[in-house]
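As agreed, record copied across for absentees:
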Amino acid sequence: GQYYVLDKSQGDLAKHVIFQCPTELGKGILVAPTVHGNLIVGPDAEDLDSREDKSTTKEQLEYIRETAALSIPDINYRESIRNFAGLRAQSDRGDFIIEEAKSVKGFINLAGIKSPGLTAAPAIAEEAVEILKNIGVTLVKKENFNGNRNQTHFMSLSAEDKAAKIKEDPTFGRVICRCENITEGEIIESIHRPVGSLSLDGIKRRVRPGMGRCQGGFCGPRVLEIISRELQIPLEEVMQDEDGSYILTGETKK
């Protein structure tokens, strides 16, 4: 399914998720505000042969615009800042697959879940734990488990708390992403937290530099430098996202 993400200038066009009548392929084209103030439009639904094809097409994006106009006719697509596509985990069973794999003992399949997976995740996790118990896995409760993540959202702090944070760590006084007002301190924090962000897109998903109007055109090179410095790796080894997605290949001048 393909999507449009529009600038925050379009975010007020919808106050809640607007669904159309579903089809046999899915819930149809929706128009919805995001929690950060953007507008998201989509998805379409296509059957594809490849399990890795996340390309977008002119024809399907036009279809999304035409269909979304039935819900909100005056969306300004000149304010589009991103298009992307995702792959649905479609099961031939027509339901979630939550079970131990028949061919690999101890391997638990959590598949075919599609869009309900976000809200269903806590219940699915509990079900997976029960499956592990039933197959004889010894589970030891972690007494020091902390379910709360300590993450700084600098722009949501009060003026007094901002001043105190900058005094404690001056990197929070340097804004790297001007579109989303993300500081260097927040980026460093996301790199060094447990299961830290090690790529540009990883940091983008965690703390939002590159999520704004310019989509990293301004802050991207600076974030790359911060990753290189904090991980103590050459600039050429910093990746955009997946393994092999290197951004730089080498120096052009020496």
